[in-house]
Design brief:
The structure is a single chain. Helices cover 47% and strands 15% of the residues. It has 214 residues and is of the alpha/beta class. It has a single domain, classed as P-loop containing nucleotide triphosphate hydrolases (Rossmann fold). Strands 2-3-1-4-8 form a five-stranded parallel beta sheet, with helices on both faces. Strands 6-5-7 form a three-stranded antiparallel beta sheet. Bound molecules: adenosine monophosphate. Adenosine monophosphate binds next to helix 2 and helix 3.
Length: 214
């Protein structure tokens, strides 16, 4: 099963993407995580991507396209994949369609997660991410059981550089201009659905699960 999960920054794609991919035994491909790993390893791509990411801008399409093609065709994705944070604009979505055709792959669900801007800002500014497994927590709404440590794997939690208030603002602007048009792009696709993400983490998960199970 192949899924595209999209929506604004802070809507919970990462958290729900991890849970969904575990539930349906598919690989979770978060473009932001792949890029952060490349930055950390200082690969050529990571060095080029860093300044865009720090500024809350999209990394150029050419850099991300190769990465995604490699991952969706890798052996660990043979049971399926969940794309989180890709595509992020119409050019990427168009290129993805072409790539899927070339590799005889289909998308089973395109799911848009929606939430109001005030909710996104609150979520992003209090967000803590696990350095080990990438799972997300929130200082107030879903704090870890042990301060600063992940409930799932025990690794240290950190605040992302781009979860600063000025960068959050820029990321939301980029979302409106670049990513929101995907709603129209996918609106007439018969596997498209919307999920209200302004509920508790478990309620949102159950709504997503229901959508996927049909
Ligand atoms: P995320 O972890 O999804 O919030 O992504 C963090 C940052 O990585 C974004 O603000 C962009 O700079 C970059 N990024 C993630 N996905 C993409 C993409 N599909 N295209 C271009 N840049 C991306």
């Amino acid at each position: 099963m192949n899924i595209i999960l999209f929506g604004p920054p802070g809507v919970g794609k990462g958290t729900q993407g991890i849970r969904l991919s575990e539930k349906f035994f598919i690989v979770h491909l978060a473009m932001g995580d792949l890029l952060r790993a490349a930055v950390k390893e200082k690969t050529e791509l990571g060095v080029q991507a860093k300044s865009y990411m720090d500024a809350g801008k999209l990394v150029p399409d050419l850099l991300v396209m190769g990465m995604i093609e490699e991952r969706i065709t890798a052996s660990d994705a043979s049971n399926g994949f969940l794309l989180d944070g890709f595509p992020r604009n119409v050019a990427q979505a168009t290129a993805l369609n072409q790539m899927l055709t070339e590799h005889a792959l289909n998308i089973d669900h395109v799911i848009f997660m929606e939430a109001e801007e005030s909710c996104l800002i609150e979520r992003l500014s209090g967000r803590l991410i696990c350095k080990g497994c990438g799972f997300g927590f929130h200082r107030h709404y879903s704090p870890p059981k042990n301060d600063g440590l992940c409930d799932r794997c025990g690794s240290e939690l950190y605040q992302r550089e781009d979860d600063r208030e000025d960068v959050i603002e820029q990321r939301l602007q980029v979302y409106l201009k670049e990513t929101q048009p995907l709603l129209e792009f996918y609106s007439d696709v018969d596997v498209f659905s919307k999920v209200n993400a302004m509920k508790s983490m478990d309620d949102v998960f159950h709504a997503l699960e229901k959508t996927v199970q049909g």
